[in-house]
């Protein structure tokens, strides 16, 4: 059987966590922070944009090498 002191300690920790969650939700609501689903959608969009950026960066680097190569040949 769990001791009353341990149970009281656990209840105190749970109360603290609930209070912290309540404060977080209040700030999130007042500041207009994105919901979890909106955040996940933004993360997916950011990932897609990062992939496109990486592809464009590689293409740009290849074009720069080609321009420099052609410059030295002429």
From TrEMBL:
This is Uncharacterized protein. Its main location: nucleus. Belongs to the AMY1 family. It is found in: Nucleus. Residues 1-29 form the signal peptide. One of its GO terms (cellular component) is nucleus. Keywords: Nucleus, Signal. It comes from Citrus x changshan-huyou. GO terms for molecular function: transcription coactivator activity.
């Amino acid at each position: 059987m769990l001791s009353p002191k341990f149970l009281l300690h656990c209840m105190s920790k749970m109360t603290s966590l609930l209070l912290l969650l309540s404060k977080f939700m209040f700030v999130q609501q007042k500041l207009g922070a994105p919901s979890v689903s909106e955040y996940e959608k933004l993360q997916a969009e950011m990932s897609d944009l990062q992939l496109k950026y990486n592809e464009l960066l590689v293409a740009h680097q290849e074009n720069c090498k080609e321009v420099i190569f052609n410059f030295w040949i002429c």
